[in-house]
Amino acid sequence: MTPRNLFGKFVVGILSVCVITAGGLGVAVTSGILTVGQPTVEEVRTDWGAVNPETSEIRTEIDLHNPSSVGVPGVADVNYAVEMNDVTVAEGTSNDVGVPTGESTISLSTQMDNQKIPAWWASHINNGEQTTVSIQPAISLPLVSKNLPAEERSFETNLLGAFESNETQTMTAGEKTVLRVTETDAEWGKATEERTPLNVGATVENPASGDVAFSQLGYTITMNDVTVAEGTTDGEVNVAPGEKTTFAIDSTFDNGKLPTWWESHVENGEQTTMDVQFYATVDEDGKTKKVTLPFLSKRVVFTTDALGGGETTTKTVPRTEATKFQPPKLQSVESEWVVPETENTGIRTSAVVQNPNQPGSLFADRLSVDASYRVLMNDVQLVEGQTSRTLDSGRTDLELSGDITDREVQQWWASHVNNGEETDRVVERDVTVDAGFARLPVGGKAERGTITTDMLGPVDSSSTLDFSVAGRQVGTVSETRAKWGDATMAETPIESSAVVKNDRSESIHITEIGSRVTMNDVVLADEANERDIEIASNSQATIRDTVQLDNSKLGAWWKTHLRQGEESTLSVEYYVIVEYQGYTERVELDTLNYEKSVTTDMLGNESA
């Protein structure tokens, strides 16, 4: 999914106001140096949340980076309204908005009132199928209130275009040609909150030897299977032999059904199939027949992007009556790592789709294929890629790729450690064919699995290690233990401890504790910390130390891990400096020191 930015963009301005206003109100600094820098927005993700006929949730997450040493306090109240063609469809308030130092995320949730959809729809139709989405933000701080500039974007549809044609068509009843259609057109009437008139007309001629009479015309209009209009019209249409005439059908949308349609539209990724079916009753040889009017009946697929500013599309697709369609098949899909020397790593996915529909058939020139690839690790989106193209008859090769940033590697690593060295892996390979009348998944079921490691497992807590100073055995090290602390984006702590026993009649001193941790020779930690720990004669003490792995080095390690087929060698080394009777000795803590092979299977490659 491409991140949507319209709804989140105004937060950038709000945060700027917060920083400026905080500076204007004054910041007291009693000591030290105050570093000042304006927060930046690293990423904005806006999408639909829960939706029902009454409300549609708009969810926005903003990842922030505040380089300042002083955070913006949570004293700001943000008020915002979402308008579509001046129809207010959503209003919300976020209280106590603030920005701490470093990395943070702000989450916003707004409920859109679906009962405003009929009013918006009427404005959209009356405005030539054009809509301007506007977000009106305001911020309130102690002693200060400020309205911020509105963010706007526009989108349009072209539903009437499906009905406008100068192409000659024929209509039959059984084996008999009833009419020859030379022109069709349509126009919207004046829409209100209650109803939307749609007037569809056709110019026809009768090539038969007898009169053709439509005693009654009817219609049914559905949008994503929600019936928004149905009924019959009064009046008879008569076309004499060899005569040309124009007739129209006046249909009316029940706008009260639009909230239910809107729910389906949002749940379907802002895509709607509008199915307009017109029919007539024909008196022929004293019998009445119900005949569909294919030259007026249309199926239109349209998409919107109300939140994001992406492309909107409208296209006419074939109806499925009396057609044969063979769904394409996904033949294979494979993924591989891309590991450049300096750029981000990534995943390249290749898929082969086989389309059995022959060239020149009804659907051969109308098919398109959408392919997407996504890897989730503990709900951290490691990579996403997507592509779309026309699907040719026969074999079609698809290729898509996506980058993995160092930040995403750090997010996954922290989640893996904090989850007990366990990762829930979801690999989604989705290939969908758009046949116009339906979107057909042709393969690529999500693969789920679990990745587990035991990187601290080799620590031997049951062994006892003798240590000497100047060639004399002085004591022992036992009960060595290591565990993970709470990992963050910046650091991953290893908390270790050991019991050091002094077997001598004089005190010993531990003056330094050192450690070094590498993965595939990438140094994640290399520390030497001075300590002043005295252990009295014939006594023991528990020595504790915390090593902070530098997560900024994980990007470099990640490349070596992939180059070696998702395999790494973890090396952990601990030592202490011991003083005894004027002698100094470096003691390697072998019960804490080890090398371990760590393997993963992120992609879970398999043929479809």
How would you concisely characterize the structure shown here?
The chain is mainly beta and 608 residues long.
In total, the number of strands is 36
Measured distance between first and last alpha carbons: 23 Å
Beta-strand percentage? over 45%
Largest sheet: 7 strands, antiparallel
Q: Gyration radius, to the nearest Å?
A: 35 Å
Shape: elongated
Q: Briefly note the structural class of the backbone.
A: mainly beta
Helices, by number, come to: 5
List segments where confidence is low: pLDDT < 50 over at least 5 consecutive residues.
Answer: 19-34
Amount of helix: 10-25%
Overview of this protein structure:
Helix content is 10%, strand content 58%. Strands 12, 13, 14, 16, 17, 18 and 19 form a seven-stranded antiparallel β-sheet that branches. The protein is elongated and about 125 Å long. The two termini are 23 Å apart. 31% of the residues are buried.
